[in-house]
Design goal:
alpha+beta, globular, Glycosyltransferase, 14 helices
Length: 460
């Protein structure tokens, strides 16, 4: 499927050659260079069962909305959120309106409240949004929801940027608020001159630390989001450095930066590739550019999970997900840290008992590949909801039942996937990514894209 939503800036570099590897002889080879599509994405009016799923997912946001700030709790009944989860909430409300679940005026009222909060957020050291905010006060917090500043996440910012662009395109009366919000942030250390995305944290001595953020899949998603707004993200968008592993005869790419050296896991999961397909649209996989490479990689990540099911009988739709109890969050992967089908914590602890069919991952596969396997996934997850709280995070692979945790990210991605079936890729063509900086207040030494050093030194 060729997207009409991807800006020209995303076609950055040439074809990437995959390393050689040996395939499992028990399965037909599917190298990363394979261009034949596995299946087409689903498209058309939603069935009653699909509309019922959308209605159930929206109930999470009805139950967890905070009217004083416009935020929604990232996790049920816990007044905390991130920019990533706020992006997923925006995805939910816009998709809910597109599916006819709520009226347009309700979306405008919710956006008015939320954008008013985002425009005046207290920033981490006056630079960029904090990683976490209290949803009732909009004050920055730690991960335990105590007052404090802990740094910024470039990938969380990227997710919000995608949906701020959708707001600009579909609700143009909010364009001024969106642009004022982004112009207020200092981008100098979030995007380097070489086009690398960086997050921030606080060092042991209290100094601000800047570290490259993102691994293969999520790094490309983040770069695509920044490119919507005219940033040079060529380095972040490039899949290199990567290696591949053969799983059931499928060549699966993974980030080859060593987690033992750099401290960042190189997990391969469904979510980042699903979001690229649902929001930006996959390119023709026969192309010779990075968008085509991403489409081929996504197909192989899908196919490896199908073949695992065929071999083991275990329905497979792997991505990171929340838990109700400790360790509360796991990366449930196709490959990570040298091990296939690894389920790990953020510290790298091996926790295979928490392997699950992640509902957002399962529905993402369902939306992007219309096959008998994804229909089985849909049937497996359709009944896993609470009538007041929406859909659970996942269903354990070991047969111990659902993960009784409810989140904005899971229910938001489910809603946008259902809307994708009706609408196609969410984003529209961005003809002028730099339009938001073409105003008098866009200078002020914040390293906005397209603004020269001399211009930034001029008073706004």
């Amino acid at each position: 499927m060729t997207t009409t939503a991807r800006p020209a800036l995303l076609a950055l570099l040439g074809i990437i050659s995959a390393p050689l590897a040996s395939a499992d002889e028990h399965w037909p080879d599917r190298p990363l260079s394979t261009v034949e599509p596995i299946a087409q994405p689903r498209h058309g009016e939603l069935t009653e069962a699909e509309m019922e799923m959308a209605r159930n997912a929206w109930r999470y946001f009805e139950a967890n909305w905070q009217p004083d700030t416009g935020f929604t709790n990232a996790v049920n009944a816990y007044p905390s959120t991130t920019l990533w989860d706020t992006g997923s909430y925006m995805a939910a409300m816009i998709s809910a309106q597109g599916l006819g679940l709520i009226e347009e005026q309700e979306v405008r009222d919710r956006l008015d409240r939320l954008l008013g909060t985002l425009e005046h957020l207290q920033l981490f050291r006056t630079e960029c949004p904090n990683k976490v905010y209290h949803t009732q006060t909009a004050f920055p917090t730690t991960y335990t929801n105590e007052p404090g500043e802990i740094g910024c996440s470039a990938l969380d910012i990227a997710r919000l940027m995608v949906w701020l662009k959708v707001v600009e395109q579909r609700y143009p009366e909010f364009q001024p608020e969106v642009r004022r919000t982004l112009r207020r942030w200092n981008w100098c250390n979030i995007v380097t001159e070489a086009g690398v995305l960086q997050g921030t944290s606080v060092g042991p001595d209290g100094a601000t630390l800047y570290l490259q953020e993102g691994r293969l899949g999520y790094e490309e998603y983040g770069a695509a989001a920044f490119a919507l707004w005219g940033f040079n993200v060529e380095a972040a968008y490039d899949p290199e450095p990567y290696s591949t592993i053969w799983l059931y005869g499928v060549e699966v790419p993974y980030d080859s930066r060593d987690p033992r050296v750099l401290g960042a896991h190189n997990y391969v999961v469904t979510e980042s590739y699903a979001l690229l397909g649902i929001e930006f649209g996959f390119a023709d996989p026969s192309g010779d550019d990075i968008p085509a490479w991403i489409a081929r990689a996504a197909q192989n990540i899908y196919e490896a999970q199908v073949r695992r099911f065929e071999d083991t009988g275990i329905l497979t739709a792997r991505t990171e997900h929340q838990l109700l109890d400790a360790p509360y969050f796991v990366y449930d992967t196709i490959f990570s840290d040298g091990r296939p089908w690894a389920t790990i914590t953020d510290t790298g602890e091996w926790v295979p008992q928490h392997s699950a069919v992640a509902l957002k991952g399962a529905l993402g596969l369902w939306g992007l590949w219309e096959t008998g396997y994804t229909e089985q996934l849909f049937e497996h997850i359709a009944g896993q909801f609470d009538p007041e709280l929406g859909y659970v995070e996942g269903i354990y692979e070991n047969g111990s039942g659902p993960i009784q945790q409810y989140t904005a990210n899971n229910n938001g991605i489910m809603l946008e996937t259902l809307y994708f079936k009706l609408n196609g890729p969410i984003l529209e063509l961005v003809e002028n990514p730099l339009a938001w900086v073409e105003t008098n207040d866009s200078q002020q030494n914040r390293c906005l894209p397209g603004v020269t050093e001399e211009q930034q030194e001029q008073p706004g």
